[in-house]
Amino acid sequence: MSPDPAPPARPASARAREFRRILAEMLKIDRVRGGVVVAADGLVITSSLPRSIAVEPLAALTATLGRELEVGADRLKRTAFHTALFSADDGTVFLGSSPVGFVVVLGDREVNVGLVQWALRKALATLEGTWGTSVPVPASPDDM
Amino acid sequence: MLAVKFQEGAAWPLGGGFTSERESNHVGLLRLLSRIWDAITSFTRPPNAATLFRRADLYRQEGRFEEAAELVAQGLRLAPNNGVGHLLSAYLHLAFRQIGPAKAEFQSVLDLDPYHPRALLGLAKIALEERDLAACRPFLDKALQYYPDFPEARALQEMVSSWAMTPAPAGQRPAYAGPPIQVEKLKPPAGGREFVLTQADGTLVFSQQGDKDAEDLAAHVTQVYRIASATLQRAGLGSLRRGIVQAVTETTFFRSNDRLILALSFPQDVKVGFGLLETDKLWTNSLRELGVRA
How far is CA A3 from CA A6, A137, B207, in A? Predict the structure, then answer.
């Protein structure tokens, strides 16, 4: 018997609501422009993006990126990635890995990278909880 | 469905062909009851394959993959040659990261419909994961040949169009032909490991590791750079400059311009600020060594 049993999994019907709630929480962060929850096959589960960004192409690319991070780590005998960020001159793409696929957040050039990373870790832990597992999250962005 | 049946019932000619109004009403009532009974039993009869696949797709869209997979398996037992069922099965295998079965299911879809765009896209994505560009491109081309307005396939085709057609096998990849590098000037900081410097085309410039591992690492770093760059550009954010990948046991920092990519890993508990600072120092030294302006 495990000394620290995982919390019981929530009913599966809660998942869709959880994805939407998580994305809504991420969108409340200052300078976050949008986000997508995308399955590993590229299926868009929920999204909120500026009108100028088409969701399907972005979802296809982020799912491909997430899979390369997963598959590449496996090939190199590294451990699985849980979060990643990629920055350009005008903003940052954040990517979190979960059992359902990937949580993607777009921030503009002024976005608080540490805060988004921390919020993403918290969101992923919530998702993991929905699946019946638990992941530790730093108490604050400064602890990352 | 129930509503439709009742509407049909209301449209019956209630009086036609009966000898008395009472007999006519009696038969009409029986018919109505029969229709109601049919409607009720349609809910209790086992669902057909199409219904199962429809429900499975709804579950899949909610991220309820386990339940969706169960319904798809049931549906395929009823209709083993159903393309929708095989496509859903392929997607669900991908969601569970079961690549071999996903590939077989996409192939089953193509056996039924050789131009199915979603199956072609699925196989293209798997080929991309396997770094088999020679296999990936024809799938995308074929999907877009018949369905030019297919945004996902178009995005991937645009991304891979600039990549080298066939990556050279391990050990035969193009060697770096730039200025000589003084290794001691590219020493990673304490705790730093798996330091690799590559060109954007995948050519390995410098690595801290042995040859074979270095090539694998360079190939991964290049692939991440390419896909991340395409993603950033698709989001209208510009070209990739920095990246951080946090895994269970290590954190990897990326730095790049349009020609060079640097990757450096630290143990997972590294402070992000320290990692960024040390990566920047190494980046500056690397550019200086190569005679490249930042």
Answer: 10, 20, 44
Q: Which residues in chain A touch residue B102, judged by CB atoms under 8 angstroms apart?
A: 41
pTM: 0.82
Distance from CA of A3 to the nearest CA of B (A): 22
Q: Which of A113, A45, A69 is nearest to B57 (CA)?
A: A45
CB within 8 Å: A39 and B91? yes
- Enumerate domains of chain A plus CATH numbers: 14-131 (3.30.450.30)
Enumerate residue ranges in chain A where pLDDT < 70.
1-14, 130-144
Kindly provide the ipTM of the predicted complex, given to two decimals.
0.85
Sheet containing B260-267: order of strands: A44-48, A32-39, A101-108, A91-98, A81-88, B240-247, B250-256, B260-267, B193-199, B204-207
Residues in chain A with CB shorter than 8 Å from the CB of B230 are 61
**Left, alpha or beta for B122 (phi > 0: left; psi -120 to 50: alpha)?**
alpha
Please count the residue pairs, one from chain A and one from chain B, whose beta carbons lie less than 8 angstroms apart.
173
